[in-house]
Automatic annotation (TrEMBL):
<dbReference type="InterPro" id="IPR029017">
    <property type="entry name" value="Enolase-like_N"/>
</dbReference>
<dbReference type="InterPro" id="IPR029065">
    <property type="entry name" value="Enolase_C-like"/>
</dbReference>
<dbReference type="GO" id="GO:0000287">
    <property type="term" value="F:magnesium ion binding"/>
</dbReference>
<feature type="domain" description="Mandelate racemase/muconate lactonizing enzyme C-terminal">
    <location>
        <begin position="158"/>
        <end position="261"/>
    </location>
</feature>
<keyword id="KW-0460">Magnesium</keyword>
<dbReference type="InterPro" id="IPR013341">
    <property type="entry name" value="Mandelate_racemase_N_dom"/>
</dbReference>
<dbReference type="Pfam" id="PF02746">
    <property type="entry name" value="MR_MLE_N"/>
</dbReference>
<comment type="subunit">
    <text>Homooctamer; tetramer of dimers.</text>
</comment>
<dbReference type="InterPro" id="IPR046945">
    <property type="entry name" value="RHMD-like"/>
</dbReference>
<dbReference type="InterPro" id="IPR013342">
    <property type="entry name" value="Mandelate_racemase_C"/>
</dbReference>
<dbReference type="Pfam" id="PF13378">
    <property type="entry name" value="MR_MLE_C"/>
</dbReference>
<keyword id="KW-0479">Metal-binding</keyword>
<protein>
    <recommendedName>
        <fullName>L-rhamnonate dehydratase</fullName>
        <ecNumber>4.2.1.90</ecNumber>
    </recommendedName>
</protein>
<dbReference type="InterPro" id="IPR034619">
    <property type="entry name" value="L-lyxonate_dehydratase"/>
</dbReference>
<dbReference type="InterPro" id="IPR036849">
    <property type="entry name" value="Enolase-like_C_sf"/>
</dbReference>
<comment type="similarity">
    <text>Belongs to the mandelate racemase/muconate lactonizing enzyme family. RhamD subfamily.</text>
</comment>
<dbReference type="GO" id="GO:0016052">
    <property type="term" value="P:carbohydrate catabolic process"/>
</dbReference>
Length: 390
């Protein structure tokens, strides 16, 4: 079997969107003077879908959501020529070809995300070619079904956030991630607002359920150090990305305080990036995303590393490309779950692009043994609501 063609298309959403409301999630731009564009840098409304076809007619599907138009250009100009004509079963060789030939300017960020999308499509082909779901090629089923945590609860009106939490508590979720709306720029008023929001969600979900707290890199070390003791009484399962991804010393210092487990890795890349985080004891929970970190070829190795370091993996974003990894390793106890909503941040867009994503049932998602590959197909229902860039 040989790879015949690689097609990367950007799907730009032009359908209905929910308008941004205030500072609904702290983010890295919050610390920059005159941050009026903070929320626009946070939202993303396009996605790149990669289809790789083999000479025997199998089509593998991969995807990348990080800087989709640039990822497409990297795939078209650099990666496609490296994999066309090759045997997809030589996936490690192909991965190294892509990684090493772009190394001078790639390594992290959008290049690794582009490599991830190609790697995902290759693994989809592998599964389809032997009629097995991808998780069966990675170690198989380690769980009856995958526990997942509800992930939305952006900062808005507290009553509305409580209603949202109640609605999904009633649907059987036992773990919830909420977003902070405030950071260092909002001074003591913001500190109080942040605490008020956590208290409001705890009021609804109680203390028998898990609560995760998301900063999305919108704090700094000094602010995070002040916040940790104040947040401790709410017993969060973790505090996520308190500082920017490059501040590994900051992560290590906060994690060493041992007040709340610090999580991160959503903006880290490759086996080497995670080795560094683990060696420094920078995070207590690893959150790579398979469609950024280097695809399944890289994520599978990171799972093994995390197993050896006894650090749990809870991949960013859920979605099929992550669920197969979570299903096939004991290092990963659970998954994230973005619910189906109108397009807001952009996290929802995959529901409009793909069929096959499992819908949570009572706080769990299930992978089927009889669906080969990653299990996704392109959805036709919303195609007319995207501008498609070939
Ligand atoms: O962990 C997450 O789910 C991410 O940080 C989200 O993708 C981002 O939208 C922050 O809410
Ligand atoms: Mg996050």
């Amino acid at each position: 079997m040989k790879i015949k063609s690689v097609r990367a298309r950007v799907f730009q959403w032009k359908g209905k969107t929910v308008p941004p409301q205030g500072n609904f999630c702290s983010n890295a731009m919050d610390l920059v003077y005159s941050n009026t564009e903070s929320m626009s840098t946070f939202r993303f409304h396009s996605w790149t879908v990669v289809e790789i076809e083999t000479d025997d007619g199998i089509v593998g599907i991969g995807n990348v959501a990080l800087a989709p138009a640039i990822a497409k250009a990297i795939i078209d100009q650099y990666l496609a020529p490296l994999v066309v004509g090759q045997d997809p079963w030589d996936y490690e060789y192909l991965w190294q070809r892509m990684y090493r030939s772009t190394h001078a300017w790639g390594r992290k960020g959008v290049t690794m995300a582009a490599i991830s999308a190609v790697d995902l499509a290759i693994w989809d082909i592998l599964g389809k070619s032997v009629n097995k779901p991808v998780f069966k090629l990675l170690g198989g089923r380690t769980k009856e079904k995958i526990p997942c945590y509800y992930s939305k609860l952006y900062r808005g009106d507290l009553r509305a956030m409580q209603d949202e939490a109640q609605q999904f508590l009633d649907q059987g979720f036992t773990a919830f991630k909420m977003r902070f709306g405030y950071g260092p720029a909002h001074l003591q008023h913001g500190v109080k607002e942040n605490l008020r929001s956590v208290e409001a969600i705890r009021e609804v979900i109680g203390y028998d359920n898990d609560l995760m707290l998301e900063c999305y890199m919108g704090w700094n070390l000094e602010y995070a150090k002040r916040m940790l003791p104040k947040l401790a009484k709410y017993e969060p399962r973790w505090l996520e990305e308190p500082v920017i991804a490059d501040d590994i010393d900051g992560y290590a210092e906060l994690n060493a305080m041992n007040i709340i487990p610090i999580s991160g890795g959503e903006h880290e890349f490759s086996l080497y990036g995670f080795k560094q985080l683990l060696d420094r004891k920078a995070v207590s929970v690893v959150q790579y995303d398979t469609n950024r970190v280097g695809g399944i070829t890289a994520a599978h190795k990171i799972n093994a590393l995390c197993e050896a370091y006894s650090v749990p993996v809870v991949p960013h974003a859920g979605q099929m490309h992550n669920y197969h990894l979570t299903m096939s390793t004991l290092a990963s106890p659970m998954a994230e779950y973005f619910p189906i909503f109108d397009v807001e941040v952009g996290n929802e867009l995959f529901w409009y692009l793909f069929d096959g994503e499992p819908i949570a049932d009572n706080g769990f998602v299930q992978l089927r043994d009889d669906v080969p590959g990653l299990g996704l197909t392109l959805k036709t229902e919303y195609l007319d609501q995207f501008d498609i860039i070939e």
